[in-house]
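Query structure, 69 tokens:
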């Protein structure tokens, strides 16, 4: 359990506790991907996460319809 994770979202920062579920490093893109579970997240924080996920989904649909990846 990590008591304090700060995510810098496009519309503000989100600070909360998380449980790291898995970590995977990808050589091809030189990036590390982390799966986490939010812990003791409040309503405002949950709405921020949902807003960010919706934004990512819209962007993915837009790039799929444009034929770009």
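Result returned for the query:
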């Amino acid at each position: 359990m990590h008591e304090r994770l700060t995510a810098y979202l496009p519309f503000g920062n989100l600070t909360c506790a998380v449980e790291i579920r898995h970590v995977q490093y990808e050589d091809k893109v030189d990036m590390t991907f982390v799966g986490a579970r939010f812990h003791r997240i409040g309503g405002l924080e949950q709405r921020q996460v949902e807003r960010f996920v919706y934004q990512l989904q819209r962007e993915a649909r837009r790039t799929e319809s444009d034929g770009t990846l």
